[in-house]
Design brief:
This protein is an all-alpha fold and 205 residues long. It has nine helices and no strands. The longest helix has 30 residues. The radius of gyration is 18 Å and the shape is globular.
C-alpha cells in the first residue's frame, strides 16, 4: 500500500513539474515581447513587418502541425509550450500575443504602446509564473488564478508603466486595471485585451 501511495505521489509530482516547466517556457516567450518597444523605437516599420510575418508563419506552421505535418523547430517549440487544454488543438496563444502587440503599436503612440506591451510582457507573464510557483490563495471563479499572481501582476505593471510614463497616478490606475483584467478567465484573449486596454488608458490619462 505504501509503495503504491509513493508511486502515486511520484506521478503527481512529475505532472506538476512538467506543468511548471511548460509554464516557465511559455512565459519566457511572453516576456520576450518586452524587447518590442525598443525595436519599434529604432526601426518601427521593419519591427511591424517582422511581427506580422512571424504571426503569419506561425499560423501556417500550427495549421500544418494540427493536420499531422510537423514543422522542424516551430512545432517542437509549440508542443513544448502547449498547456493541457491546448493538447491536440490549434494553440491560439501566440496568435493573440502577436495581435495584441501589433494592435497596441498601431493604435497608440510610442509611450502608451510601450506601456501596454510591457503590461502584457511583465504583468501577465510574471503573474502566471508567480501563481504557478508559490501561489496559495485561490481567487474564486477565476479558473485557478491566485492572489499572489494578481499582486505580482499589479507590481509589474505599475513598475513598467512608471518606467515609461514617469507618472505615479497613471501607473497606479493602469496597474489596478491590468490586474483586474488579468484575473478574469479570458484564456488566451488577455494577450489581445491587456496591451490595447492599458495603452488606451495611458493615452487617455
Amino acid at each position: 500500500m505504501s509503495k503504491y501511495f509513493c508511486f502515486q505521489i511520484g506521478i503527481e509530482l512529475k505532472k506538476q513539474l512538467t506543468s511548471l516547466r511548460k509554464e516557465f517556457f511559455r512565459k519566457t516567450i511572453h516576456i520576450c515581447t518586452a524587447f518590442v518597444p525598443a525595436m519599434l523605437h529604432f526601426a518601427r516599420i521593419p519591427a511591424l513587418l517582422c511581427l506580422s510575418m512571424a504571426g503569419i508563419f506561425y499560423v501556417i506552421a500550427e495549421q500544418l502541425r494540427t493536420t499531422g505535418h510537423e514543422i522542424p523547430l516551430i512545432s517542437d517549440i509549440t508542443a513544448a509550450a502547449a498547456r493541457k487544454r491546448d493538447e491536440n488543438k490549434f494553440v491560439l496563444g501566440p496568435v493573440t500575443l502577436v495581435l495584441g502587440v501589433l494592435s497596441a503599436a498601431l493604435l497608440w503612440k510610442e509611450v502608451p504602446a510601450a506601456a501596454g506591451i510591457y503590461a502584457l510582457a511583465f504583468g501577465d507573464g510574471l503573474a502566471s509564473l508567480a501563481g504557478k510557483t508559490f501561489g496559495k490563495i485561490r481567487i474564486p471563479y477565476t479558473h485557478g488564478k491566485t492572489a499572489e499572481g494578481s499582486l505580482t501582476c499589479f507590481a509589474a505593471i505599475f513598475s513598467s508603466c512608471f518606467f515609461v510614463t514617469q507618472n505615479c497616478q497613471t501607473s497606479l490606475i493602469a496597474a489596478i486595471t491590468g490586474a483586474l483584467f488579468e484575473v478574469l478567465p479570458l484564456k488566451d484573449f488577455d494577450n489581445l485585451i491587456i496591451p490595447v486596454l492599458i495603452g488606451g488608458l495611458v493615452t487617455y490619462l
